[in-house]
Amino acid sequence: AQSVTQPDIHITVSEGASLELRCNYSYGATPYLFWYVQSPGQGLQLLLKYFSGDTLVQGIKGFEAEFKRSQSSFNLRKPSVHWSDAAEYFCAVGGSQGNLIFGKGTKLSVKP
Amino acid sequence: NAGVTQTPKFQVLKTGQSMTLQCAQDMNHEYMSWYRQDPGMGLRLIHYSVGAGITDQGEVPNGYNVSRSTTEDFPLRLLSAAPSQTSVYFCATSWTATDTQYFGPGTRLTVL
Lengths: 112, 112
Fold this sequence. Notes:
The complex is a heterodimer. By secondary structure, chain A is mostly beta strands.
């Protein structure tokens, strides 16, 4: 069955530090992979997506993610975190019904 | 161009009451879906539609009904609300089942 695992429930980083959020997926074929961000009380906004091609994907707000088939991973990175990046981040894989299968999310806190 | 709209933003129901959560989109997207978000659970698919007149069940369909009479609207009906349906509900739309999904702002529902 398709699934997504985000091992870290909560991460705290200092402003200006680098960030990596982990995501592992289980899917038989080449997956469609997504990262979404949710600010408190808001809906979800797409950060970036991977469908095929270059395994390093650039997104909005300075985020990038790398698809590693051998590790079944799609980790999200940012070289320098800003206080406004504090939010919850969701990794998702495209499911067989055309839906998104989400991980349980990683909450990011940013220390000044 | 309003994108994806959901009404109401907040709702409190008593056990056994019925209600309809509205979702509308003005992007002419064929694919629409409903998710519920619960703390620590990520988002889970309730029902989805690949076009007007076509709907199907997702991961957690029990207690919910949908219909799709137009491309623009995809209402979610709770027939007899239960406390277990207390959640935040998101509608999402996309051009196709595998395309980027756009999320509405959500409806926060409390069932007493």
